[in-house]
Amino acid sequence: MKHKRKGLFILGCTIPALLLFGIFSLYPFLKAIVMAFYSWSGISDTTEFIGLGNFKTLIDDPIVWKSFSNNLLLLVVAPVITMFLALSFAYMLTRKKLKEKAFYRTVFFFPNVLALVVIAVLWSFIYHPTFGILNSLLKSIGLEALTHAWLGETGTVLWAIVLPIVWQAVGYYMIIYIAAMEGVPDHLYEAARLEGATEFQQFRQITFPLIWTVVRITIIFFLIGIFNQSFVYIKVMTNGGPDHASDVLMTYMYRQGFENGNFGYAMAVGVFTLLITITLSVISEKLTARETYEY
């Protein structure tokens, strides 16, 4: 009887959460997949089933593939830079006896308490071609030839967006890596030092293998999260411009649905994005699979 009451209590606590998840997450998700096979303006009551018509249009749409290539660039460049910096800072703050360790942790983590929209607006001012800090700094040190309209040129816009993504993410992943590194026993480092191992060798042979499981998980999280985060940055900072040079699949989907009134096609782009996300997650999991070490 006691176990039965406990089961009913757990069920009563779970059902409301499941209902909310089903209504606000699962149903819209399934509905979007279904509407990808329809022609729908988003506001009309009438829908027309067109089968794979939206997907055929998607295959022939050059902007989709341009957006996809931009996604791939962000998915490669941003995680590599972020993980390198996060691991470097985490190792220095863990292994080095710095008095200001708590201060540095706070400073590096600070961007994570800001909303992505706020960060995007902040960096838009930094990149401003007239009164932005970046161009002003270059001019003040005699490098005026290197100034650009960073968000207005096709050759610089994507790289300019990478920086705020990295700036915002480094502190978050650094904290995760610090927590993992602090669990590595000190006697392993002491034995390595007695053997004459350098700091880099200690990191490569001890630290990195022992925290690899955590690194692997963060890589997958980053690959999934960058689809949503890049949408915010690009929507606020460039709106996909100039000439679709910074468009990603999410911004193009948004434009088709809410600006062009083509919700059916927007859902098809969304399904394509979902498939890409799942594929990249599976590939990254396979590529990062390796022997784990315990201590």
Overview of the structural elements:
The chain is an all-alpha fold and 295 residues long. It is 72% helix and 1% strand. Helix 5 crosses helix 10. The two termini are 43 Å apart. The mean pLDDT is 89.
Largest sheet: 2 strands, antiparallel
**Which superfamily, in CATH terms, is the homologous superfamily?**
MetI-like
| Tally of domains | 1
Strand content: under 5%
Structural class of the secondary structure composition? Answer: mainly alpha
Low-pLDDT sequence parts? none
State the oligomer: single chain
Distance between the termini: 43 Å
Please tag this protein with its features.
single chain; 295 residues; mainly alpha; MetI-like fold; two-stranded antiparallel ribbon; 12 helices
Architecture blueprint of SSEs:
Layout: H1 2-35, E1 38-39, E2 48-49, H2 53-59, H3 62-95, H4 101-109, H5 116-126, H6 133-140, H7 157-181, H8 186-194, H9 199-210, H10 212-237, H11 249-259, H12 263-287
Antiparallel strand pairs: 1-2
Helix pairs in contact: 2-12, 3-7, 3-10, 4-7, 5-10, 7-10, 10-12, 11-12
Brief digest:
The protein has about 300 residues and is mainly α. It has helices at about 1-35, 55-60, 60-95, 100-110, 115-125, 135-140, 155-180, 185-195, 200-210, 210-235, 250-260, 265-285; strands at about 40, 50.
